[in-house]
Amino acid sequence: MKTYATIAAFREALDTERHAGRAVGLVPTMGYLHDGHRSLMDAAVVANGVAALTIFVNPLQFAPTEDLSTYPRDLQRDLAMARSAGIGHVFTPDVAEMYPEAIATTVSVAGVSSALEGASRPTHFDGVATVVAKLFAIAGPCRAYFGEKDFQQLAVVRKMTSDLSLPVAVVGCPTVRESDGLAMSSRNVYLNDAERAAAPVLHRALRAGREAIEQGVRDAAAVRAVMAEVIAAEPLARLDYAEVVDAATFVVPAPLAGTLRLLVAVRFAKARLIDNIGVLA
């Protein structure tokens, strides 16, 4: 496994792999890797001739009031996990390498980015789309692997990639969960013991909403109320949003029909967690 701190060296390494006839799988991350990231690396290793990992905590996707300075980091642990997964190349740039000057160009994806996370974190998806577009430009033609845990982010990346005709196949991978249903997330480290015990309430709320739809409920407000009631029963949790949308457009159908996605965001003292599941109506 080789590591690179510069754009030029990482780009050259992946170009060399393609020239040798090897397809490239790319796993973009912000580091502090867990088993969810490991599942993305495993998928990339299995499906491609070589797999590459990027580790970069992107300041563009953090608002001034968010946790950029305290976001968890453990590069040596991340590199050990990447090596054990069979990753061939790791890109670990610093901010000066990615953004040597004040950035004047940003990528904004209308529609799918406007609600939910886009409403709660107004600058977030422009930052995500910009850094992912840059990473795709650096990496070149590849398959890129993203987790469905950040389902709206996955939709934004897919739409951006399609609209800009980027030579990247975006692959969504299932959410990896703890045994009690909590979606794996780097931000779970912010939870204290009591909050960690309470955190599976997100998944319980989503399952309750899915059950309501499977039982024939077709009114989005009623499904939102079912999920909100589950969250409200947990005193340590504060609901940010609970929603049901069309999985492709993020529009709320009336009545509910087709391939849907249930999404929730919940705040604890220091942690804000998100989760989602799919359902057919």
Key phrases:
single chain, 281 residues, alpha/beta, Rossmann fold, Pantoate--beta-alanine Ligase, Chain: A,domain 2, 2 domains, six-stranded parallel beta sheet, three-stranded antiparallel beta sheet, 10 helices, 9 strands, 38% helix
Please describe what this structure looks like:
- The structure is a single chain.
- The protein has 281 residues and is α/β, with parallel strands linked by helices.
- The chain has two domains: 2-173, HUPs (Rossmann fold); 186-275, Pantoate--beta-alanine Ligase, Chain: A,domain 2 (2-Layer Sandwich).
- It has ten helices and nine strands.
- The protein has helices at residues 7-19, 35-47, 75-85, 95-98, 117-120, 124-139, 151-163, 193-198, 201-214, 220-232; strands at residues 2-4, 24-29, 50-55, 89-91, 142-147, 168-173, 238-246, 259-267, 272-280.
- Strands 1-4-3-2-5-6 form a six-stranded parallel sheet, with helices on both faces. A three-stranded antiparallel sheet has the order 7-8-9, with helices on one face.
- Strand 2, helix 2 (35-47) and strand 3 form a beta-alpha-beta unit.
- The longest helix has 16 residues, at 124-139.
- The chain starts with a strand and ends with a strand.
- The mean pLDDT is 97.
CATH class of the largest domain: Alpha Beta
How many domains? Answer: 2
- What is the CA-CA span between the terminal residues? 46 Å
Sheet with the most strands, sense and barrel status: 6 strands, parallel
What is the CA-atom radius of gyration, in angstroms? Answer: 19 Å
H-E order: EHEHEHEHHHEHEHHHEEE
Mean of residue pLDDT values: 97
> Total helix count?
10
What shape does the CA trace take? globular
Helix proportion range:
25-40%
> What is the CATH homologous superfamily assignment of the largest domain?
HUPs
Give the CATH architecture of the largest domain.
Answer: 3-Layer(aba) Sandwich
Strand order of the largest sheet: 1-4-3-2-5-6
* Low-confidence parts: none
Overall SS class? alpha/beta
Beta-strand content bin: 15-25%
Per the CATH scheme, the topology name of the largest domain is Rossmann fold
Give the strand tally. 9
Oligomer: single chain
Keywords: ATP-binding, Ligase, Nucleotide-binding, Pantothenate biosynthesis
Catalytic activity: (R)-pantoate + beta-alanine + ATP = (R)-pantothenate + AMP + diphosphate + H(+)
Organism: freshwater metagenome
GO molecular function: ATP binding; pantoate-beta-alanine ligase activity
